[in-house]
């Protein structure tokens, strides 16, 4: 996991955007085929984080990446990228992108592709780009059109990293990679974030490994942002509380248990996944959960009260509960 107190992000922009968040959405709306994929989404992604963008198929992850990259406009609200309008000249040279279709010129060799990257990007780092293709065993002389899907992903990532961007927007970067290349590229990305303070936003369906790679999570489902916060904070905020009820039909959860995300009942044993538990009085046991378990619970319960850094929940806890814990500086 990367440290939130790492080096200051590399910065090629103006002073005004030096401290702006990597992404800042206010009332963001994205149309899907059958209505809103995201509606009234407000969240902030601080600089220097490795962000897991998570949600079910069709939740709007690719659409969000496309809007941030300036490829399509938002359908409502505002999204700022490094303090700027997406796609504006002030921000385009500072972002690196990887889209699901990995658009590359198929006739070029890998070496020609990297040369083009060098010619188009004044801040190009050839060694960084070559290290990616070398680590992934992609021959420099091979034509892009003859590479496997996973090998093309390596070349596209080499182009994105060679640009030395302040923000990397990666749409399912690991989906096509074998375990060895996945490890190599994950390592390269984490090193980039740790050594240069690059913000990385990557959509993924691999929840089991998220806590190893990402230190911030953005979870969207059924048109809502459900979580936007540090992974450590998300984990610390949730508990699984088990109660033994006096009778199978008796009401189980004591009032004021906290923000209940999900409950399960088996006979007299009742478990509740609670955010910011206020009182565990009467509980038979309390245990922590993995990040994956928490994210899956929100995905099963998309009507749950959202946990979004910097915003107040409808059922916000009082002072002294985890929401009032000091957060890392952004
Ligand atoms: N080119 C397009 N034109 C119109 N609607 C689109 C287009 N691409 C996607 N959509 C719609 O936008 C919504 C969000 O799709 P999107 O691809 O952003 O979701 P996603 O979370 O990335 O999904 P997945 O996990 O399957 O990649 C869906 O309703 C989808 O049908």
From TrEMBL:
GO terms assigned for molecular function: ATP binding; ATP hydrolysis activity
Domain annotation ABC transporter: ranges: 23-247
GO BP of this protein: response to antibiotic
Membrane topology: Peripheral membrane protein
Keyword annotations: Antibiotic resistance, ATP-binding, Nucleotide-binding, Transport
Signal sequence coordinates: none
Pfam families attached to this UniProt entry: ABC_tran
Family: Belongs to the ABC transporter superfamily.
Protein name as annotated: ABC transporter ATP-binding protein
């Amino acid at each position: 996991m990367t440290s939130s107190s790492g080096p200051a992000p590399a910065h090629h922009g103006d002073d005004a955007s030096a401290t702006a968040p990597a992404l800042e959405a206010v009332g963001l709306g994205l149309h899907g085929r059958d209505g809103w994929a995201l509606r009234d989404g407000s969240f902030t992604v601080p600089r220097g984080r490795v962000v897991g963008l998570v949600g079910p198929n069709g939740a709007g992850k690719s659409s969000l990446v496309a809007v941030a990259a300036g490829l399509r406009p938002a359908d409502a609200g505002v999204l700022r990228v490094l303090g700027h309008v997406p796609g504006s000249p002030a921000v385009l040279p500072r972002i690196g992108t990887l889209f699901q279709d990995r658009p590359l010129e198929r006739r070029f060799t890998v070496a020609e592709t990297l040369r083009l990257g060098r010619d188009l990007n004044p801040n190009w780092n050839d060694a960084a780009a070559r290290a990616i293709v070398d680590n992934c065993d992609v021959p420099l002389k091979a034509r892009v059109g003859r590479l496997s899907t996973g090998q093309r992903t390596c070349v596209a990532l080499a182009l994105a990293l060679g640009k030395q961007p302040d923000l990397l927007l990666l749409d399912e970067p690991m989906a096509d990679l074998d375990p060895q290349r996945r490890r190599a590229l994950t390592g390269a990305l984490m090193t980039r974030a740790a050594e240069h303070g690059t913000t990385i936003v990557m959509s993924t369906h691999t929840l089991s490994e998220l806590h190893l790679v990402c230190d911030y999570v953005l979870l969207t489902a059924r048109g809502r942002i459900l979580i936007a916060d540090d992974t450590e904070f998300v984990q610390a905020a949730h508990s699984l509380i088990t109660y033994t009820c006096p009778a199978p039909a008796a009401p189980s959860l004591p009032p004021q248990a906290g923000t209940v995300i999900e409950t399960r009942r088996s006979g007299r044993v009742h478990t509740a996944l609670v955010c910011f538990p206020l009182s565990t009085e009467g509980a038979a046991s309390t245990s922590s959960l993995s990040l994956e378990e928490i994210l899956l619970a929100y995905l099963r319960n998309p009507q749950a009260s959202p946990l979004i850094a910097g915003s107040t929940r409808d059922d916000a806890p009082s002072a002294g509960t985890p929401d009032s814990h000091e957060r890392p500086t952004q």
